[in-house]
Recover the amino acids of this structure.
């Protein structure tokens, strides 16, 4: 197997995790990963040796995901059927509720904010890697990340709503 193939195999678990978090559905995530791998393999000549394959693959996945979302009818929603994330059995009931609350908060974020938050918090990409993967400026990454974090805090009840102003005399 060549260098591209070897590195691709190592990135697959991260692609699956990001796709699962992005779509919220195991089957859709598997399809997204498959489509991403197919597109990456057919476009492997565009990858520059020595560059970060992981960031390049996330860029490919982002583009495939955006194309899939655009192709779907806007009004169709796909139920999670109670399988948002695999919650480890060793967690306490309180932990499981907390994970479910976080998942629900992530689902309520706009796609643009959720993508940035997941790439930085879950996949631990840098701001510049995230900007490159999504094809947006670093400043946009920073503002979307800030808005996503604030929105999650509000949804989880950890912060007051941003629109609430305090009168100061």
């Amino acid at each position: 197997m060549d260098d591209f193939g070897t590195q691709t195999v190592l990135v697959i678990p991260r692609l699956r995790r990001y796709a699962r978090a992005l779509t919220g559905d195991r089957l859709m995530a598997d399809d997204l990963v498959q489509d991403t791998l197919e597109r990456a393999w057919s476009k492997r000549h565009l990858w520059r040796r020595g560059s970060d394959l992981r960031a390049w693959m996330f860029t490919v996945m982002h583009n495939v995901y955006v194309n899939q979302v655009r192709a779907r009818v806007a009004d169709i929603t796909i139920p999670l059927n109670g399988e948002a994330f695999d919650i480890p059995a060793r967690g306490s009931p309180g932990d499981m509720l907390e994970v479910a609350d976080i998942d629900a908060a992530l689902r309520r974020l706009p796609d643009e904010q959720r993508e940035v938050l997941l790439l930085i918090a879950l996949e631990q990409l840098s701001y510049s890697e995230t900007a490159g993967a999504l094809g947006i400026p670093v400043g946009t990454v920073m503002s979307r990340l800030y808005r996503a974090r604030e929105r999650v805090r509000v949804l989880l009840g950890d912060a007051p709503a941003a629109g609430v102003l305090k009168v100061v005399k």
